[in-house]
Amino acid sequence: MSRSLKKGPYIDEKLLKKIKKLKAGDKTVIKTWSRASTISPEMVGFVLGVHNGKGFVEVSVAEDMVGHKLGEFSPTRKFVKHGGKKQKEAEAAAKAK
Question: What pLDDT sits at residue 60?
């Protein structure tokens, strides 16, 4: 469910201060734990380190990401491939090529 239009988007104040200190196009990684923050146009072009519970995932913010949450680009669960006999055979065949 989206946030009320009356309230406006949630953007962490501490994160905005860090972004305003840097110059546009600076590739310094800005670490943040605020996964719930909405990406604003001021963040475009910066690299954010979004915490996923274990480490920081580097997210370079593009123009089409505006309006999304930071947490959408930093998955918290690691996918371990499906196993089984068929999977092993397929991998062996791919390795042989």
Answer: 92
Domain ranges of the chain: 1-76
The total number of residues shown for the chain amounts to 97
Q: What is the pTM of this model?
A: 0.77
- CA dist 6 and 4 (Å) reads 5
Contact in structure between 47 and 60 (CB atoms under 8 Å): yes
pLDDT of residue 82: 80
CA distance 36 to 50: 10
Low-confidence ranges of the chain (pLDDT < 70): 1
Q: What is the pLDDT of residue 83?
A: 79
Residue with token string 């505006």: 66
The burial of 90, by beta-carbon neighbours within 10 Å (0-12 exposed, 13-18 middle, 19 or more buried), is given as exposed
Q: How many CB atoms lie within 10 A of CB 9?
A: 14
CATH 3.30.860.10 for the 1-76 domain, yes or no:
yes
